[in-house]
Design brief:
Keywords: Metal-binding, Zinc. With 189 residues, this protein is mainly alpha-helical. It has one domain: Endonuclease III, domain 1. It is built from nine helices and two strands. Strands 1-2 form a two-stranded parallel sheet. α2 packs antiparallel against α6 and α8 crosses α9. The longest helix has 21 residues. The chain is globular, with a radius of gyration of 17 Å.
């Protein structure tokens, strides 16, 4: 018998959103390639809804070489031009131009910490599990996202403001913000 799932209020009815919520959001990620994917996508999401990015995720995957940060770090001007003309992605010039910068800075962090995973998870001992009753209680940023955002900016990353970084932390499971009524909150598992 399949139980009736109760999801966080933000999910809505789109099947992609449900799948993302159920299978990815809030689950700890330790793989550098996946971490870069979310960092890139969260930067593109700035000022837009996540569903907009989610609907274009596969187009982003194709356009950005399967989120291979080593390739993205070496993008040429002709690659930029093709990305600016690609209707399958968000064609914001500043966001597109930030991708190779962030890829280069990502590699720098890997060189310093052995992996971006080590860098990121060094900020917390274990994933933070919040106990929000409602989505209205979930903050847009925290002291943790402020700290990581400030450090990433100091390292030269772009589109890493505290709100973007908090969404990133939620996406990669550093922070679990499933609400208490959600079937995916650890108390309901």
């Amino acid at each position: 018998m399949t139980r009736n799932l109760i999801r966080c209020e933000w999910v809505g009815s789109d099947d992609r959103y449900k799948k993302y919520h159920d299978e990815e959001w809030g689950k700890p990620v330790y793989d550098d390639k996946k971490l870069f994917e979310f960092l890139l996508l969260e930067g593109f999401q700035a000022g837009l809804s996540w569903i907009t990015v989610l609907k274009k995720r596969e187009n982003f995957r194709k356009a950005f070489d399967n989120f291979d940060y080593n390739k993205i770090a070496r993008y040429t001007s002709s690659k930029f031009e093709s990305l600016l003309l690609n209707p399958g992605i968000i064609r914001n010039k500043l966001k597109i131009y930030s991708a190779p910068i962030n890829a280069q800075k990502f590699i720098n962090v890997q060189n310093e910490f052995v992996s971006f995973n080590n860098y990121l998870w060094n900020f917390v001992d274990t994933p933070i599990c919040n106990h929000w009753k409602s989505i209205k209680e979930v903050p847009a940023s925290t002291k943790l996202s402020d700290c990581i955002s400030k450090d990433l900016k100091k390292r030269g990353f772009k589109f890493v403001g505290t709100t973007i970084i908090y969404a990133f932390l939620q996406a990669v499971g550093v922070v679990n913000d499933h609400t208490l009524i959600c079937s995916f909150h650890p108390i309901n598992q």
